[in-house]
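README: folding subset

This subset contains proteins for which both the sequence and a predicted structure token string are available. Records are stored as plain text. Below is the entry for Phage terminase large subunit family protein (590 residues), shown exactly as it appears on disk.
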Amino acid sequence: MTVTTKMFKKIAKVVAPPPDLNVSDWADLYRRLSSESSSEPGQWRTDRAPYQREIMNAVNDPEVDTIAIMSSAQVGKTELILNTIGYFVDYDPSPIMVMQPTVDMAKTFSKDRLAPMLRDSPALKGKISDSKSRDSGNTMLHKSFSGGHVTMVGANSPSGLASRPIRILLADEVDRFPASAGTEGDPITLAEKRTTTFWNKKKIFVSTPTVKGVSRIEMAFMNSTQEHWYLPCPSCKEYQPLRWGQIKFDGVLMACKHCGSLHNEFEWKSSKGKWVSESPDSNKSIRGFHLNELVSPWKRWDEIIKDFKVAKEGGPEMLKAWVNTSLGETWEEEGEQLDEDALVKRREDYGCDIPKKVKVLTASVDVQGDRLECEVVGWGAGKESWGIEYRRFYGDPAEPAVWNELDNFLSRTWFKEDQTGIKISCTCIDSGGHYTTEVYRFCKKREHRRIFAIKGQGGDGVPLVGRMTRTKREKCALFIIGVDGGKELVMSRLKKDFEGPGYCHYPRQADKGYDEEYFRGITSEKRVVRIHKGRPKIEWIKKGGVNNEPLDLRNYATAALELLNPNLDDVQPTKRKPKRKYGVVSKGIT
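--- output ---
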């Protein structure tokens, strides 16, 4: 069949996008959701979550060059990024950069989110060549198309950020970005420099927030129009945002802040909403949007209430995560310094080596010039912890004698009242001092016992336990430990006042090593926020004249648990009867 010019024009009229198309219109016409990345596969419908329309269309506003989305989870923020990419690939070809916190996360985004959209949305099919095809010029992290490209980078990669000019910058989860991309400086600043040659540039920053005062997305939002999604009260019709403080658990209702009437979730959400700026005098070129899970069509209010109750019972770190991911709000720390006297009074009599609730033991070792310091920590359900023993082994770390003492100690079995024995499941030894080679050699021979070398790394966005590498000479397994994040975790657990998930127990027995000096050490640092090169930065400041090894060791023992990653709700230690050997009763070893 021959296609005539008249027929071609008729086909093109149906297929080609209409003029003056904006991002939300494009998504409604051409975006298809994939089954592996969406619970609602099929044609995209902006009306499913109507608050998304204005956010997407702000991308097309010539007066707006920056958009900040401070958001909870479960509101479709990743789909906003994908729709923006699809629009510029199909309708307004441009060079695009997508930033993720790490290179690995950028690869995951490309494989699990971008690739399915390119495959399943007919308007995008064929626009970008398959990276597997010969001479396609495309890789997992770089997709070329006529008139532009999509480059995906990790904020931890200076080479990716210093590549080519870009018009569209999409930065996802900016609060998880490291403070510096290698040694090159702030990753967002590096990326923004790539947009300077474009008069029509667009910069979109998206994230769930973290800690008040240092949150990148909070700073961007506070410098914007600060818009919130308002809905009218079903009774008095007064518009207002959905606030957690107005939620009533009984009946799962929300009270109107104007007339006080109570209505359920579906009554509130059935009305037409609108974005309202709470900073009308702000710079109109920077639009900021705040979203929480209360407005989401994918999360019911009764689920949010259940999540809150679990988080409240789980301790400060779980409540912090809930505030960040459910309310889309920053977490404000309560108090910066722990009371060492209160921790001393917390000590209790275990009655045996380890209490019955302990299911896993981890250990940590710090190397000093004249000694090795070690702590053994027991862990139970909900990561409730028990200090088991704190020991110092004096001697020259350059000589084998002190290491032999440590090896014997780490080989011990600790027993409960019923003779159940538990051995240490994982040990982290700090290799960052003057005896790095000795640490590597000790750990290399004992990796089968999960005795690993670690190296601490400070800074925001560094995970508590990073990926394993192998040292060049000794071929020893080495893990990078995010010490700042670990300290925050330890401190939040020490602040917990009631037994249960996250609570820290300590023994009263004098021979276990938990004396007043230990508690001075574990409370030896405080968290402060300082301005560094114009940006707020969290720093840990040590009190003078106090050793901070107890804090470091609890940090490393916590990292050992995360590295081990046991299911503490299921782990059951093995019980064995005492055995006779050479006429002496010896305790069974598990």
